[in-house]
Amino acid sequence: MIKKLEWDSSFFGFNIAELNIMQISNKFDIEPFIVENNIKFIQARCNISNTEGIRLLEENSFHYADLRVTFQIQFKEGMPYHIYELANNEDINTLKKIAANSFTDSRYYGYEHIFLRGKIDELYETWVEKSVKGLFDDCCLKITVNSKIAGFLTLRIRAQIATIGIIAIDEKYQGNGVGTQLMNSLMGYLAKSDIEFIEVTTQGKNIKAQNFYIKNGFRLKELESWYYWLERK
Q1: For residues 16 and 177, what is the distance between their CA atoms, to the nearest angstrom?
Q2: pLDDT in the model for residue 79
Q3: Average pLDDT by consecutive 10-residue portion of the chain (233 residues)?
Q4: Of the candidates 200, 163, 193, which has an alpha carbon nearest to the alpha carbon of residue 79?
Q5: How many angstroms separate the Cα of 230 from the Cα of each of 2, 48, 112?
Q6: Tell me, what's the pLDDT at 99?
Q7: CA 99 to CA 164: how far, in whole Å?
Q8: Helix (H, G, I), strand (E, B) or coil at 68
C-alpha cells in the first residue's frame, strides 16, 4: 500500500514515500508508517475518474498538486522518420546543461521549500547522464544543428512499449522544428523493432508539451491526479 522510495529519499536528503491508492478499498491509516520511517513527503496518483480514491486521499490530508497526462501513439510502418543519433559520454556535459534549464513545468516546482531548486535541476541532469550510460532509461537520442546538440530525449523499452522519459530542446533552437525532427529520429531508431506503442507522460500545466505531442500524432491515453502529503511543522 505504501513504500519508502529509497533512491528519491537518498537523492533529496529526506524520507519520501509513495502511496498506491489502487490497493486501498475503503479507509487507511499510514501514521504508524510515517512515524516509523520518519517520512516527510508522500506522493500518490489517482485516475481522475476514481472519485472514491480522491475522497480517501483528501480525507487523509493529501492535497491536489497537478495532473499527470499520458499520451500514446501506435507505432506503424510508413511513419516519417529521421536518421537518429545516439548520445555518448562526450555529450553528457552539454546534455546536462540543456536539462538543467528545461523542466520548470516539473511537478516538483512550486514546492521549492521542500525540493530545492538546485536539487530539482540536478535530478534531470542525473536522469539524462544515467540514460546515456543505459543505467536509468535505456538510451538517449540527440539532434544536432551545425554540429551543436539542439535537443535530446531519453527512451526506455519494455516489452512492446517504448516510453519517452524526458525530452528537452535547447532554448536557442526552440520554435524551429527541432522537436519534430527529434520525434522523427525516434521513429527511425524504432524502425526495425517490434514496438507497438510509444508513450509519454507530462504535467497538466505543461500545455506547450501537450500541444507538441498532439501535433506529432499522439492521443490522450490517461489522466491522473498527483496528490501530495507533506509533514506538518
Answers
A1: 39
A2: 65
A3: 96 96 82 95 96 93 96 81 89 96 87 89 96 97 94 95 96 90 92 92 94 95 97 78
A4: 193
A5: 15, 21, 13
A6: 95
A7: 15
A8: strand
pTM of the model: 0.91
- Long-range (24+ apart) CB contacts under 8 A made by 174-183 are 178/143, 178/145, 178/150, 178/151, 179/151, 179/212, 179/216, 180/215, 180/216, 181/82, 181/143, 182/141, 182/143, 182/151, 182/152, 182/153, 183/216
- The Cα 200–Cα 206 span in angstroms is 13
Cα gap 79→113, rounded to integer Å: 44
Residue-by-residue DSSP string for 7-41: HHHHHHTSEEEEE-GGG-SS----HHHHHHHTEEE
* Cβ–Cβ under 8 Å, residues 32 and 50: no
Report the helix count and the strand count for the chain, using DSSP H and E: 7, 10
Q: DSSP character for 44? A: E
The predicted pLDDT at position 233 comes to: 66
Which segments of 93-212 are extended strands (E)? 139-145, 148-158, 161-169, 197-203
- For the chain, first and last CA: distance in Å? 25
